[in-house]
Every structure is written in C-alpha cells, then in structure tokens.
Amino acid sequence: MTSTCSRTTYYRVRRKIQRTRMSVVQLSLALVACVSSLGVSAFGDEPRFVDNSLLIAPEYPCTWPSHPFPRFAIIHSRTIGPESVYNVDTLLIDGNTGTQLDVPPHSVARPELKREKSGPLGLAYTDKIEPWQFGGEACVVDVRDLLDRAPKGESPLVTPQHVERFELQHRQVRFGDVVLFRSDYSDKYYQPLPEGRRYIADILDRKAPGYPDPNPECMEFLGKRGVLTLGTDSASMGPLPDLAEPTHYAGLKYGMIWTEGATNLHELPATGAFYCLLFPKHADGPYGEGRAFSIVGGSLPKRLIEACRNKRAVDLSPTLKPKLPLTSPGIGTGNHRQVYLKIDFLYSDYLDMHHHGHLMDSMAGTHLVPPAFSLPADDKPIPYAPEVRGWLEEYEKKYGKRGSSNQTAEQVPIDWTCGEAKVIDVRSLVGSTNPTQWPSSPEITIKHVQDYESKAGSVRAGDVVIFQTGHNDKFLREPADNPAMWIDPLRGKSEGWPAPGPDLIVYLKEKGVRCIASDAPDLGGVDPKRALMTYWALGSRQMVGVEFLVNVDKIPAKQAYFMFAAVKVRDCHGGPGRAIVLY
Q1: What are the residues whose beta carbons fall under 8 Å from the beta carbon of 386, sequence distance 6 or more?
Q2: What share of the chain is helix, strand, coil (3-state, %, to 5)?
Q3: For 197-228, how does the pLDDT look when each residue is reduced to its tens digit (9 = 90+)?
Q4: Is the peptide bond before 439 cis (omega within 30 degrees of 0)?
Q5: Which residue has the higher pLDDT, 328 or 9?
Q6: Helix-helix angle 386-399:528-540, to 10 degrees
Q7: Neighbours of 42 (CB within 10 A)
Q8: Mean pLDDT on 523-537
Q9: Which H helix or E strand runs over 276?
Q10: How many CB atoms are located within 10 Å of the residue 114 CB?
C-alpha cells in the first residue's frame, strides 16, 4: 500500500482480501494503512472533539502521592444565597495534578548554574513555550502489548523499535507531530480511591507492575526525528523505578514538551487527528496542570495541524503571577476573590528550584464562566438579598425564567469554547459614559454586532464572539493592588470596561453562538445589577464565557480559529485555562 491510497483503492483491497486467504495480520495492516492514508475524513465529514483529560476530584488519584506533594483541594468559598449572587471557588492545585504538562526546566538546569545539564532550555518555562508547540498531528503509537508486562514496581519500556513498528505501518514521524504512547493504562486504572491506588501508589509500594513508558533511547530517537511534542496515557513519562530522570532529560534537552496522564487515546486514529494540550500560564512553571483534547473528522484537523507545523499561533492568555491583579477585589470590605498565590515545596538542589503549586481563585487569569456560576443547582427558592430579589423580578419579566443549572466546568463540552474567531472592536466605547453615573460600564449592544456583520459577514452558529475592549492590555500591570485594573472602576473612580448586556446575549444565542469572550476582566462590567443580568442570560441559555484575554489585537481578521480549554476540575464554578488562536 502507498500513501496515495484512495477510497476506490480501499474497497478494491477489501474485495481482494475477501477473494484470497490473507492472514488476519495482513488484512489488518492493509486496511489500517489504507484508512490512515485517507486522513481524518474517513472518520466523518464533521469534526468531533475528544476529551483526553482525566477528571480532577479529591477522591481520585489525581496528585502524585509521595510526601510532600500537596493534595488537590477545591473550596466552595461562596454559594448563591443572601451574601452572594454567584458560586465562587478556590483551588489548591499543584502542576502535577490530573492530565499535565512537562517542559524542559523540569530536568534542564538554568544556564547560569553551569551544571552538566545546564542550557538555554532551562529557561523554557510553561509561560515561555510558544503556543504552536501545544498541538499537532496525533501519531498514536500502540504499546498495549506492554501493559502489566513487568515485575512489580517496574515499568515495561517503550523502545525505538515500537516507534519503528508504527512507522512501518503508517509513516515516519516528524516535526509537527504529537507522538502519543497508547497503553490504555489510565483508562484501566484511573479510578476513585481506594481502587485508584493502583494508578501510582501501588507501583511505588511495589505491589503492582509499573506503567509503560519510553526509555532514554526512545527519546533520543524521537528527538533526532524532530518531534517536539509527546504524550502518554501513563501517570508520568518517566519509567519506574530508576529511569524517570534519564528519560525526562533525554527528551527535554531537545526542547520537547509532553502530556502526562492522557486518556481516551483509543478514540483517535493512528494518524490524522489534531491533538492539543492547553494549560494555565503560570510564571516560571517547570510543569503544569492542563486540559488535553483531540479533533477527529472533517477538514478542521488538517487546518489546525498545518497551523502548528508552520508556527502560526497567537497566545491570548496573560502570565499568572502573584504580583499581577488577576482576581477581583470586589466592592466593599470582605468581598474580594482569592488572590493568586504561589506555594513552594520540595527544593531541588541540582535545578536550584522549588516544586510549586498555587492557591488561586478558579477565575484567576483567563478562565471559563459556566452556567452554574450564576445559576442555582435547582429550582428551589433562593434567599437572595431584598435588592437582588427585585432585580430577579425585573429580569424574569423581560427575559423569562432565570432557571437553574448544575453545569460546572468539567461538564462544558470543549467544542463549546472552540470555533471561528469573530473579533468585534468596541474600543470606541471607552470614555462614553457620564462620570456622574459611575460605577458603570459602556454597554456593548446588538447594534455593535450588526455593524460588525455589515462589514465582515454574519456571525454564525459555532463562532466564538470576542469583544476587543483593550482594557487588560492597557491596565494589567504590577503591582497586584494597581487600582486602574479593577479597584477604581469598581468603586466609581474611573469608567468601567465595556461589557455586553442581556439583550445582546439573547441576540447571539438566537444566532447559535455558544461562547462569548472578552479581553476585559469579566463580561459583566462594574454595575452589579447589569452584570448579574448578563450572567443570568448566559447561564439560562446554556452559553458560556471566556474572560480575561489579552493580545486580541493580534488575531488575524480571517481564518483564525479560537481554542480555549479549562482544567477538568469536578464541581468547579469557574475554570482556569488557556486561550490561543491558530491561523
């Protein structure tokens, strides 16, 4: 079979096989090679999103179990009721949680340390990796024959021969590919505790065979092929008990990044799917929690693969660090959201660096607004404050029932927050409000969208509408109590950022839009009543928001595909994540 195999050839081969006595192995190889060469269109004309991420929840083995790695925790800081109109969460999360990312400084020392493993890549932290490297064409290397085939406490090894076996059946791997090692390990063993101890803890205690992983020679092989992005559905890319660091360094010294703890790789074809890992942009992170997904079918995967291969990407998320004003200080004493904090632990003398996690509001930096943020979980009466009860009566009289929802971040399909980018420039609204009416935000109206449509074409179902206000690009700067970003607008000392009203939400829903985004701190604006009505309109219409973007002015006017994915935390009423555009 050649790579030019067509559908006609495919059916001709199948008929030939039926007339002959080809072995099962020969039949499988022939059909797989032919289907693979047809590309993702052989798996359907419409793109299908596959979630390749593990669920993060306290009863799952989502964190590294050894001392002193911190346990994951979610704190429901505020719930909808007399004191809050929103559900507000705080996360204690370490970068080694759930489906996660490794980058070169995990093993490569900084240049100034002048160690044997020092080099420029020792500075390639999670906030420095270019977004084109996050994704590419998935090349799924099947290593299921290694699962559980090792002594207790030891990992069966993926070798260069396993990659060569893949190449013999499909094609040679190269730059722009994401090589994924599929053993189905996480699919089988990532379970709630105590059964979930089999995922990592039982291996460390030498009670069970280790997870399959590449040896250093395999990493060298891939590095010389030009592959810069990898993934495994094992808990780590490091074979146990003693090859974890050699394997890490063998790959990371080439500038590789990779996914650890992927899952559902069985839903991908051997080649042709687009695979991506998005993650919060923590400053100076040697690793980080993330959200992995794939797109199979239609023409979209090929388009995104080519964008990554040709380094056509725009990063739309700000760097997260404690010195920046990343979360709302609220209006009035005691109403602030959890400030973003870095928590150091477990010092590495060789790297002169602490491992670290974060205590953070679930809406720090670029984040998701799911329906459950502003809607109660059921239709039972809510004891809102008297003023808010009046707002609700006014809202329901004009827009219909507020409704209820338990759709938290992990339940929002990834395809809701991905789509063609429609950037609507509303910077002309800045300075349009009367200072005597502050705190107030200029309202983005239906007319602003219609004016855009008259010039750029209609907004369509599945598009992601992005409002360009310029606020974050102008005011997101140190220190963390910088008043221009949040404090002055919220307290009526300066104008608020432009924000859509509920009428516009209704209009966009009628057009089939699921997701709206903004480069402002939030979509609500600084008027509490107007903000709540906007969020009620979003939630009640099963729409979501992506807030706190930057660099929106760098998005091309045409053929720009927006992608955002939130970390898959169960019962989270926000959702930290990363937004990029591929073009």
Answers
A1: none
A2: 30, 20, 45
A3: 999 999 999 999 999 999 999 999 999 999 99
A4: yes
A5: 328
A6: 50
A7: 16
A8: 98
A9: strand 274-278
A10: 8
Q: Which amino acid is at 454?
A: S
Instruction: From 461, 460, 422, 410, select the one nearest 565 (Cα to Cα).
Output: 410
Each residue's pLDDT tens digit, 318-366: 999 999 999 999 998 989 999 999 999 999 999 999 999 999 999 999 9
The DSSP code for 68 is T
The domain 363-582 is classified under which CATH number: 3.40.30.10, 3.40.50.960, 3.20.20.150, 3.50.30.50?
3.50.30.50
What CATH architecture applies to the domain 49-54+97-311?
Answer: 3-Layer(bba) Sandwich (3.50)
Statement: residue 376 has pLDDT above 70? yes
CA distances from 288 to 182, 233, 235 (A): 21, 16, 14
Burial of residue 162 (number of CB atoms within 10 Å: 0-12, 13-18, 19+): buried
pLDDT in tens, 401-417: 999 999 999 999 999 99
Helix (H) or strand (E) holding 478: none
Domain boundaries, the chain: 7-38, 49-54+97-311, 363-582
| Pairwise CA distance, residues 582 & 388, whole Å | 41
pLDDT for 428 beyond 90: yes
Which of 149, 166, 260, 301 is closest to 212 using CA atoms? 149
What is the per-residue pLDDT across 382-395, written as a single tens digit (0 to 9) for each?
A: 999 999 999 999 99
Using only the alpha carbons of the chain, give its radius of gyration: 25
Are 49-54+97-311 and 363-582 the same fold in CATH? Answer: yes
What's at 55, amino acid-wise? L
pLDDT over 60 (residue 502): yes
Place of tokens 């969020």: 535
* Residues 6+ away with beta carbon under 8 Å from 164: none
31 residue type, one letter? L
Rounded to whole angstroms, what are the CA distances from 316 to 98, 155, 327, 410, 578? 23, 39, 17, 21, 8
Q: What is the pLDDT of residue 398?
A: 97
pTM of the model: 0.92
Amino acid, single-letter form, for residue 282? H
